[in-house]
Structures are given as C-alpha cells and as structure tokens.
Recover the amino acids of this structure.
C-alpha cells in the first residue's frame, strides 16, 4: 500500500553468499532482469577466487603473466623450532583461454582444476550485488543514503525496477527491504541532501579530472563534456526532489562547466544585446 504523496523508497538488500550460476540466470529471466547484466567470469578470476582454498601452510605467488597464461609458485611454509622455513613445492600454470591447469604436482593440479571449475559455475554475494546495481543504473537510478553504500533511495518512478530486483533476489534466497518515503518534512530534506551530495561528488570528480586534462585529446574532451552532461542529467531528473538545494546544485554544475571549457580553451562569446529600431 502506497503512502500519500509517496516520492520513493529506501531500499537495502542482502545477496546470498553463493548461488549456482544456472539458478541465477533462471531467476534473472523470470524477474525480467537482462542476462547481459551478469558478466561472464574469466578463468583468471575463477582462479583468484579458488586459490585461497590452497593457501594453508603454503604461500602462492604469481611469477609470470601474459595474455595467454599465468604461472604461480607454491612455497611450503613450516615452523622448525622458533623459525619459519620455506621450500618450493611446485609451479602451477593456468591457461587463461581454456581454464586448463598444469602442475608438476598431480594432486595439486587435480584439486586446483576442480576448484576453478566450481568457481566458474558459482557467483558470490558481490556478483549478485553488482547485478542489482547495474539493473538500477540501466533502468533508473540509486542514490546512496550512506557513504559506505548498501542503503539507497529509489524514486517512485522506478518502483517497477525494485520489483524486478526483489523477485530475482527472493528466487536465489536473498532478501530486500523496502521503506516507502512520503514527501514533506524531514524525509524530503534527507532525500534532497543525499541527492545533492551525489551530484556535488560528481562535479568534484570532474574538477579533479579537469586538472590533468589534455585539451588536444578528443577522447578526453568528449569525456569532460560527458561528465558535466551526466551531472546536469541528474539535476534534471531530481529537480523537484532537490527542494532548497536546487539553486546550490545549479551553481556547482555551472562552475564545473566553466572550468571544463576553460581547461579546453573554449571561449564563449557573450551574446550581443538586440539592436533597437526607431520608435522602440
């Protein structure tokens, strides 16, 4: 049941510690979440997640990497008396394209290969959280309520996006909490403050970017203008919710726009006053 004059929701979710990738894709499809938001996992990433299962009483260090392979040295660590001693166990090589592991220790090779294969079929809580975040950024927006993230304001116009996220999370044994926010009073002020902070942070980042700007690089020029345009788009989307902060945010965006144009050597010619005709 919606509140009178509802402006949005405060949303927070908990992702499952681990979920089978096939189950995740099924949940996304049934919830209407695009499968493209679940990025493919690289074998190198699967190995990095798997290798901590092999670090007991040994140290694993990368010794070589290129576009095709990664090599690692396994070094045993043991305490003899009051001193730690180290001895090389073996070398392990991962083919980045096929995911095949080769190792001079057959037991370690078999275990490492099994761990990588398992990781390729699983996704963790961070993976699921990134999917939820991509969903909102693709179809709406998330305004962080706290600097550490995890709690967000979602505008009323995006309630259907929250519905999709909720259906997906519940299907994979996650959860989501939704608190309706009505307009007026302290709620509106808190929401406005959070939106202002996000836009000001965008402008601050743009200002830092401008300090190292190369006015001759067309890609850099394009990115600089895109950063300002993104801040302006955020202002336009939340103009009605910014309340008393609207003028402040407009000023911050105008200031960073001027800094970008100055850094790029763009000089704006003041508009000439309209000429008057006889009798006016």
């Amino acid at each position: 049941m919606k509140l009178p004059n509802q402006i949005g929701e405060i949303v927070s979710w908990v992702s499952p510690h681990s979920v089978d990738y096939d189950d995740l894709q099924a949940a996304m499809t049934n919830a209407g979440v695009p499968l493209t938001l679940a990025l493919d996992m690289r074998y190198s990433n699967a190995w990095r997640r798997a290798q901590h299962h092999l670090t007991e009483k040994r140290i694993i260090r990368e010794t070589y990497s290129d576009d095709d392979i990664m090599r690692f040295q396994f070094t045993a660590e043991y305490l003899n008396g009051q001193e730690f001693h180290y001895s090389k166990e073996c070398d392990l090589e991962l083919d980045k394209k096929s995911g095949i592991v080769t190792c001079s220790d057959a037991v370690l090779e078999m275990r490492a290969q099994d761990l990588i294969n398992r990781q390729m079929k699983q996704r963790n809580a961070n993976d699921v959280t990134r999917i939820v975040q991509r969903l909102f950024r693709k179809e709406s927006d998330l305004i962080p309520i706290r600097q550490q993230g995890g709690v967000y304001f979602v505008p009323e116009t995006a309630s259907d996006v929250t519905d999709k996220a909720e259906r997906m999370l519940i299907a994979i044994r996650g959860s989501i909490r939704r608190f309706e926010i009505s307009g007026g009073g302290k709620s509106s002020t808190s929401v406005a403050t959070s939106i202002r902070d996000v836009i000001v942070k965008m402008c601050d980042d743009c200002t830092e970017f401008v300090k190292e700007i190369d006015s001759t690089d067309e890609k850099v020029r394009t990115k600089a203008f895109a950063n300002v345009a993104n801040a302006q788009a955020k202002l336009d989307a939340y103009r009605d919710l910014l309340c008393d902060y609207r003028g402040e945010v407009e000023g911050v965006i105008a200031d960073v726009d001027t800094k970008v144009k100055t850094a790029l050597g763009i000089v704006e010619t003041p508009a000439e006053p309209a000429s008057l005709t006889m009798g006016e």
About this structure: Strands lie at 6-14, 18-20, 58-65, 69-80, 83-95, 101-103, 122-124, 143-144, 152-155, 175-182. The chain is about 45% helix and 25% strand. The longest helix spans residues 185-211.
